[in-house]
Amino acid sequence: MDERRRAKRAASGDGMTNKEAALEAPAAVHAEPNAATLGHDLSRYDNETLVKLTEHLDRLADQSELEATKLHSLLEQLRREYEPMRRRREEAEYVEIKLERRLKHKSSH
What we know:
The protein has about 110 residues and is mainly alpha-helical. The protein has a domain at about 5-80. The chain is about 85% helix and about 0% strand. The protein has 4 helices and no strands. It has helices at about 5-10, 20-30, 35-45, 45-109. The protein is rod-shaped and about 90 Å long. Keywords: Coiled coil.
């Protein structure tokens, strides 16, 4: 069942227990309705449900922002740790190439 149908089913509660409807509600938040149906879809929700969905969206936004901050911090940490290793590897490759050239040059004479 696609996300839009799931969201509509969750909104109407058709054949679902409260627990199922609660589990499906986040799917309604993640569904990407088109502009033509957005108003219609939201009109199916009562005010309490809209408030809960809004709060859920706020929590998701806060969580996403926090996760983005954590990921950015981890990325910076990885860059700081990786950069010296990358430099050492490049230096080692450079030295290896120089040695190979010297050996080839000496063996050709």
